[in-house]
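User: Fold this; tokens only.

Assistant: Input:
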Amino acid sequence: MPDRFVRVALVAVLILLALFVAQPYLTALLFSAETPRAVTARGDLAPAETSTVALFERASPSVVHVFAQGAARGQALMSLDDEEEQQGQGGNAQTGTGFVWDAAGHIVTNNHVVQAAAQSGGTIAVRLSSGEVVPARLVGTSPAYDLAVLQLGRVSRMPPPLAIGTSADLKVGQSTFAIGNPFGLDHTLTTGVISALQRRLPTGEGRELSGVIQTDAAINPGNSGGPLLDSAGRLIGVNTAIFSPSGASAGIGFAVPVDVVNRVVPDLIRIGRVRNPGIGIIAGQEATAARLGIDGVVVLRVLRGSPAASAGLRGVDPTSGTVGDIIVGVGQKPVHRLADLTAALEAAGVGQSVDLTVERDGRTRSVRVTTADVAENRQ
């Protein structure tokens, strides 16, 4: 009896061992999906997904890929690999993003995207969302705002212009959507929020642009000139720069506010440049003013025939070095630095009267000045 039990137990163990060894093979034999699997119904998209999909489908046809090539290279377009290689060697090719501004085929992008081509008489081309490549003509540039306007050549079908929003009522925390061509990858959508408002950003011509939008939507090389949209799909800014030690997105991107764009672009289309409202002064360096304990804009020199000269503003005495006028306010807004003054004058526009609060010899007075286009006649 015990011997029989032992034999049965051994047989059972051998059977279990055989099943254990054969289990993977039996599973593969019995359960392998050798035909396409049935699709599991997922139901409706979430409301947030639906709105994002609709936003991209509505806005993406208006976003284009801009290729700018300096005259040094004898070709208009290059592959992405060639472009990256040349840029790494200090080449004069650049790609970026742009978007359709109006039904006439004007494209808005960043000045730094087309700068090399503009300076050397090179070529500019635009690839539409349909894949069609169209030559483009440079209409105007504004290094001070890092904006440029192109004019499309003949196209088979003009893409629709983007809807325009406003940057005056933006709030930190609002959703943002960036569409662009990072690293040459066409029509990439990234999302985020407005991280901060009223940032300052250095631009061309030694100027500083105020009121810049900061967003954490991923912005990488190639996104430059692309649109930053709100949740309604309206343009609220033009992506222009990132802050990143590595050169890739670190979650800190900057966009020129649309209210500035909506003021600058019509001038670029109409006259090819931007009318710069000013009063005709040369301001002293901010670092020097800070060392002297001065809070405001020091008038270093007044240009001849300027509105400032007509209003009797006085610069630094060239003989004694005595400080003349210090501008400390425009209207009801305080002025601490030159960017405050230029922002207030830009908001007023050309040919408008503004009230300056000026300090001279320890006394404060109000001076009314009419702004002029200081870019027309600098002396």
